[in-house]
Design goal:
alpha+beta, eight-stranded antiparallel sheet, 4 helices, 8 strands, 27% strand
Amino acid sequence: MSRLAWAAVGLGAMAFLAVLAITGGRGGSGLEPFTPKGLMMIPLHDVREIDLATPHAHWHFARERDGWRATQGGTGVGFDMRLDSALRLLRNSGPERVLTEAEVAQVGTAQFGLEPPRLRVVVSGPSPSVFAISFGITNPLGLSHYAKVDGSREIALLPAFVAEAWERMGETP
């Protein structure tokens, strides 16, 4: 290629970069607004109470004006921040996959570790809204946990970090 062609390509690239710098992008609608993809539909600010149950213990948390208070079970330092974080993950992080009722029936529910569940979370919003989810074992890769929402016959594969946030709450709230 001749020197003149390379110079023209270079000037074109510089002009393109200058347009990007001045306009701030390549056009289009830009970023889409965030929409929660989690299974829980209750808005975070509407949550009033949370019940957390493991095979070994049970906790009940109530939201008051100044934050969360444990009405049953002991708590540690910073439990309210961990509780808010776990709640946010439950609302915002969607399932990686949902096993249909037919898929669950083919293999049976016992293999998902949901009878009894390793962890159960019940979130109460303004009456009558209640969201209850049971967490089972991890999938064979260890990247997701099986979870079942009350009233549904499907089983969701939730990212491990969602279930682990609630498990940490159950270890040392």
